[in-house]
Amino acid sequence: KLANMVKRGALIVLEGCDRSGKSTQCSNLVNYLTAHNIDSKLLKFPDRTTSTGKMINSYLTNATELNDQAVHLLFSANRWEAMDDMRSMLLAGTTLVVDRYVYSGVAFTAAKGLDMNWCKQPDVGLLTPDLVLFLDLPIDAAEQRGGFGEERYEKREMQIKVRELFLQLRDSLWQLIDANRSMQEIELDIRQRVLSTVDTIHDKPLKQDLWT
Ligand code: NYM
Ligand code: MG
How far is the CA of 185 from the centre of ligand 1 (A)? Predict the structure, then answer.
């Protein structure tokens, strides 16, 4: 069948604490894939351009206050509103490189003391990644990279808790990347893992059953 001739794209997620180098690595990866004729696109959560994203942005920049549960649900809604487009792009053969996903959603809210299982519920049924790369950087090294910014959550104590929670969320999709190396070494490492995932996607169905 004609529909089966298009190989779907891979859903690749990069996760990590603030200052772990995710954003740089995500854009380098997409540039590399594009240069090698692998159709790919960079996405980022939160997507601050949508109406939920604007509310999230105003919360993160301390312009507004929101209840912890409410902002958690906004982060999740910000993902849900992207799902239809993401599914279409993946099925059309585009590999998506996603800067943060549900793991950030759970780790950051649970670090405030909310129940982890409660935190997972709104994301149940989202697209399941093919690969999650966790860029692991010791907090001290992250701080040496110019320190955390001004946004909410960018504090040492918070980041330590977030990292612990991230590690509790590790599942079979995860691969740990030692982010305490040169940018180039990390980039090569990530590239190899992503290429082998893209190569082995074959006719694996795209799943939308996260945390079910
Ligand atoms: N964050 C990100 C959450 O608290 N929940 C989420 O669901 C997501 C996707 O927002 N400190 C936090 C993590 C970051 C902050 O992300 C903004 P970024 O990548 O710094 O723009
Ligand atoms: Mg940040």
Answer: 25
